[in-house]
Amino acid sequence: MTDLLRAGFSRLWRAPVFWLGVVFMAGWGGLVCHSAYDGTREGIVYFMGDLCRAHCIATVFLPPVFCALFLGTEHDHGTIRNKLIAGKSRPAVYLSSLILSLAACFLMIAAYFVPVVCIGPFFTEGLGMTGGMLALIVGGELLMAAALCSLCTLGSMLISRKAVLAVTLLLAVLAGLAAGGYLEGRLEEPEYNHVIMMNEEGGPAIASDRENPSYLRGREREVYQFAADFLPTGQALLYNFDMMVHPVAMCLYSLLILAASTAGGILAFRRKDLK
Q1: Are 126 and 35 in contact (CB under 8 A)?
Q2: What is the pTM of this model?
């Protein structure tokens, strides 16, 4: 697999999609810092923890775009078939592709943190949380990205047509974001609605709290929270908007997705008919 990785990284350094991703994420980090600077001029207080979470929604689009344009071309050009003809095993081919997608995604995320770490401290008031919690959040964000990379790699190795692959991955991510937004919207419903009513004589308003029928309770709330914590796109929204309830569990779910999709992908790829 060493030869596969050497050739893959050699191709990665020359891939326009990779460098476009690096520039995009670095620009995103600069834009976040500029927004923090504008906010401080208006009296808004920002913390480094806020800046370290602001990339998550952009990050979910990195794996599908990269895998579709970088890994997807290997089917179109017959590269995967040539690797197998050269004597490389299917698990080695699959794992090398996964490692390449993980490395590319992590490097693009690192590009985001360059301006944030270099410029962000000038416009923020400390971390805003303990160092351990910040490390847990950043580690969870990387695991979330790794889970997405593993799922997108699985699709890239099983879908032979690049155009179909690109549409499938992007639609899947958009659907995941829509599902995550719905779940979090339901979880954010208040338990009580504050209602203000005028009395019949037009006298002083009467304020009362009424139970919100849309508020999730009991087992139903646990199911919604689990789904939001489990979905990588749901995790991205939770991190981005600082709505984490179970950050450790979210890391474990990402590891589970990474392991399960990799194992399942290798088994499926071993049976795939490469024409």
Answers
A1: no
A2: 0.90
Could you list the beta-strand ranges (E) of the chain: 192-198, 205-211
Does 162 fall in a domain? Answer: yes
Strand, helix or coil for residue 107: helix
- 243 three-class SS: coil
- How many domains are there within the chain? 1
Residue written as tokens 């005028």? 198
**Residue 62 burial (C-beta neighbours within 10 Å; 0-12, 13-18, 19+):** buried
Query: Which residue(s) pair with 197 in the sheet?
Result: 206
Helices (H) and strands (E) in the chain — how many of each?
A: 13, 2
Tokens of 115: 């301006």
Q: What is the pLDDT of residues 232-261, one digit of tens each?
A: 999 999 999 888 889 999 999 999 999 999
Token output for 67 = 């895998």
Q: How distant is the alpha carbon of residue 13 from its chain centre? A: 23
| Containing structural domain, residue 91 | 2-187+232-271
pLDDT tens profile 130-143? 889 999 999 999 99
Q: Is 26 within a domain?
A: yes
Dihedral angle over CA of 258, 261, 267, 268, nearest 10: -150
Residue 218 counted as domain residue? no
